[in-house]
Write a structure and sequence with these properties.
heterodimer, A: alpha/beta, Rossmann fold, 6-stranded mixed sheet, 4 helices, globular, B: alpha/beta, 6 helices, 7 strands, about 40% helix
Chain lengths: ~130, ~200
């Protein structure tokens, strides 16, 4: 698994599609509710949006969401996960907004530990962090 | 040749960029270097004036000629080329543009009065802004462009703001692609994202 992080509209997906081979599926956390099934090299785009949607559902605790994504990436070792960096603003007053940033940051940290590479995209340029 | 210098608010990118361009100009042939500072901020309120004052103070004694150009950046070319500014053929221009985020906002909202939908479509403005920048680069020995990083806060803004943020991101990406060097400034320290610091001038 490779992890790609970066701010909003920094060209993360374009970078992935240019650098790595064509995926069998580009899953979009902004639209898709469930993690994809099946095999082959898949790109999970907008993971932060999916995390936000799951958190809004009372059936999913932060631990459960973390477990779901870690289990999935362990079963799909050749995947690429793309997630926005959302934690570099003022800590929001709203508890749900706070939780979303915190949980997204913690999940990325957990993914980074297991990832074969971690790249940060700024202005369309990649920098390898790990 | 373009160097793009990016950073968050208060990261020290302006001061870093000024020293960077001064250093580059220091390598020019004796007496040929001309330093230009292209200021893009509208001086229309107290905060802007105080910020402009702080930046002027910082530039004092560094030999910059300031050109105020909040929109249509390509117009600064004719000002650099007028006889008073020395139309000598051997002049080497070192240009510091501060900053792309202001220029982008000024272009997008130029003449904007209608709150509902009067702003310019970024898609239509983008190519013209890029052409202006790249023309400027062609006539310069080195063009240093300062821009902002405003993409990491996770806030969902209103439509206009979101369009502006995307517009700036696209300009940053296009400039970064063309640039020889891209440097992110963090606490005044350089994090080189592309190329090398102080590339030798051809």
């Amino acid at each position: 698994m490779r992890l790609i992080i970066g701010g909003y509209a920094q060209g993360k997906l374009d970078y992935v599609l240019e650098k790595y081979k064509d995926p069998v599926l580009i899953w979009d956390g902004m639209k898709d509710e469930e993690l994809p099934t099946g095999d082959g090299y898949m790109v999970l785009h907008n993971l932060h949006s999916w995390i936000g949607k799951k958190l809004a559902d009372a059936n999913f605790s932060p631990d459960r969401i973390t477990e779901m994504i870690l289990t999935w990436t362990r079963e799909h070792t050749d995947c690429i996960v793309i997630c926005n960096e959302i934690g570099s603003g003022v800590v929001p007053v709203d508890a749900d907004e706070r939780a979303w940033r915190e949980v997204t940051g913690r999940i990325c940290t957990a993914l980074a530990k297991e990832a074969e590479s971690v790249e940060r995209i700024v202005c369309g340029l990649a920098q390898r962090l790990g | 040749m373009i160097t793009l210098i990016i950073g968050g608010s208060g990261s020290g990118k302006s001061e870093f960029a000024e020293e960077y361009v001064s250093h580059l100009a220091g390598n020019a042939k004796e007496g040929r270097a001309m330093l230009y500072y292209l200021a893009t901020m509208h001086a229309d309120d107290e905060e802007s004036r105080s910020r402009i004052g702080r930046h002027r103070q910082m530039r004092k004694g560094k030999g910059f000629e300031t050109i105020e150009m909040p929109v249509r950046i390509e117009r600064s070319l004719s000002m650099m080329e007028n006889p008073e500014n020395g139309k000598r053929k051997d002049v080497e221009r070192f240009v510091l543009l501060e900053c792309l985020s202001n220029l982008a906002a000024n272009e997008m909202f130029d003449g904007w009065t209608d709150v509902r939908d009067g702003w310019h479509d970024p898609g239509a403005v983008k190519q013209r802004v890029l052409k202006g920048l790249f023309d400027l680069d062609e006539k310069s020995k080195h063009l240093v462009i300062v821009s902002n990083l405003i993409f990491d806060d996770g806030v969902e803004y209103d439509t206009v703001t979101t369009e502006y943020i995307r517009f700036l991101a696209e300009l940053n990406i296009a400039v970064a692609k063309k640039a020889q060097t891209v440097i992110e400034v963090v606490m005044g320290l350089p994090n080189v994202l592309k190329g090398e610091m102080y590339p030798p001038c051809m």
